[in-house]
Write a structure and sequence with these properties.
This protein is mainly alpha-helical and about 80 residues long. The chain is built from three helices and no strands. The chain has one domain.
Amino acid sequence: MPTVDIFIKNKAKQLSFYVREFLQGNIPYAELNLFFWDTMEEWTQIKSGKQTPYEKTEQVFWHIMHQVHYWPQKPYVKMTFLEVN
């Protein structure tokens, strides 16, 4: 069974992929949302037992997961302030 650190490290890579693909319009919101719920389900199987404070990577990971869950289905990439020059 993976540790919290290994779980976050592996899922952070996947999260990066899903967010990038969603913002580029390559995957639908439903797929991003499914990733969110699958990750939450997998998280329940991790034996925490962690007594140390969250590391910065873990804090950022959970913040982005929270944001992903509350994003509207229409990608933000259409907004002008996110355009890449």
